[in-house]
């Protein structure tokens, strides 16, 4: 799995962008998006996904079930 | 001294005078009750007073900063650039999702800017509005949660427009980490929003804070925030940076507690305290708006401000402006300076003509103060306990120069034998739109100034005149285009004479409503 940003709720405040340890977040068409190839759900970096922890709108940075669970490299 | 020299002098002062300023700040902090009586008629000592009341170093810093000097706000304009969208805390009175061009409150902007766009905008505005003296970064998030963008903007502007004062406003969470950088850019005015010093109270205002990669909630979050705010305040005042403290008055949550906040920030050297009414219209979608938390009435707000005055300087002229506001505090010219428009503008930044214009403003200002003093002298010896409020329609410059029907706001002065004291302002809808009266709008105006005995205007139509008289508010138009304070004192003198002769009986007025909601920009 990875996290995704629900674009209709994103205020484009950019708070998540610098917090991402994987530089997975960029601005696209006025809102921010997470690159699922880069997102690690912050596993191995922090206790909680940083984008969700700093986001001002609840339930906007959420787990994207379309992707398999991230596996930390052994 | 050229404007360039002012910038250089301030830069030097920042380095050399830090120690001396510490002493000055201490003196100011100890300087209690700088007098709402005593005949000077000033609004509150620091924010309203003239040069004579303040140490020269402080006066030089505040005299053309509209937010730090009540007197300056009639003459000088400021602008905010919205380069800082991210925030590191959540407040129950803030909702970042809502964004409307007509919405006038902090945290809301029409478009965010890059530091480069912001620098261009500052030059464009400074060339168009020569009395624009202050650039602030106030969000729409928290400037210090966006440190690279904020400081890059300061860096660009300090190079291209060195005569403009730099200013920022923060929630304080990240402040201790950035005090040295702030001092390095010669930012000599910093505002911290402090709504509590008790974490139990804070837990009702802040659902969470984000600090060092972790979201904290409840009392723990509020404790962290208050500790960082007070530490940051102390670090700034030690460096001689003037600090204003903003507090949102939330009835039943922190209204009584703000007296404690006032003492706490005063003891740490804050220069000015700005207690603002909560904005909580349900349509803004904030937690407080949705759960029915009310804001204070005009009387409740004034009573709290009055009770803190004497403890320290109180700001009463705050318009709770947007993070992209442009112009005098009571006006909003941001629509003239959209990114599209400024990028197309040819900017000719002329320091000399700005300086010449500002010298003219200073002359006007001196004339205003002299007129007030002269009129005040004629009130000497009058003995009366009567204190009353009047509303004034003004476009700025300290003059009664606005038509009743065109006023977007009224300035409120308290009159007594001590003189005329600015105590606030009331926003109103544009009453007159397209040349015909609208009864509902008139009722809105009356509710907003219902605590006033009279309303001073440059001009007023026959119908609203009669309705005001029926509501017990005297419309006064014989002082059109004259100085506000001088005219108010003259009117008050005549009022007292009429009371003394028994011609009229003095009666107390009721409370008034603090208007919320969208600012209608119809012109």
UniProtKB/TrEMBL annotation, chain A:
Key words, A-Z: 4Fe-4S, Electron transport, Iron, Iron-sulfur, Metal-binding, Transport
GO molecular function: 4 iron, 4 sulfur cluster binding; metal ion binding
Gene3D superfamilies the UniProt entry points to: 3.30.70.20
Keyword RNA-binding: no
Coiled-coil intervals: none
SUPFAM superfamilies listed in its UniProt record: 4Fe-4S ferredoxins
Origin: domain of life: Bacteria
Cofactor(s) essential for the protein: [4Fe-4S] cluster
Any single Pfam family the record assigns to this protein: Fer4
Domain called 4Fe-4S ferredoxin-type: residue spans: 1-30
Classification via InterPro entries: 4Fe4S_Fe-S-bd, 4Fe4S_Fe_S_CS
Protein name: Ferredoxin
Species assigned in the record: Methylocystis rosea
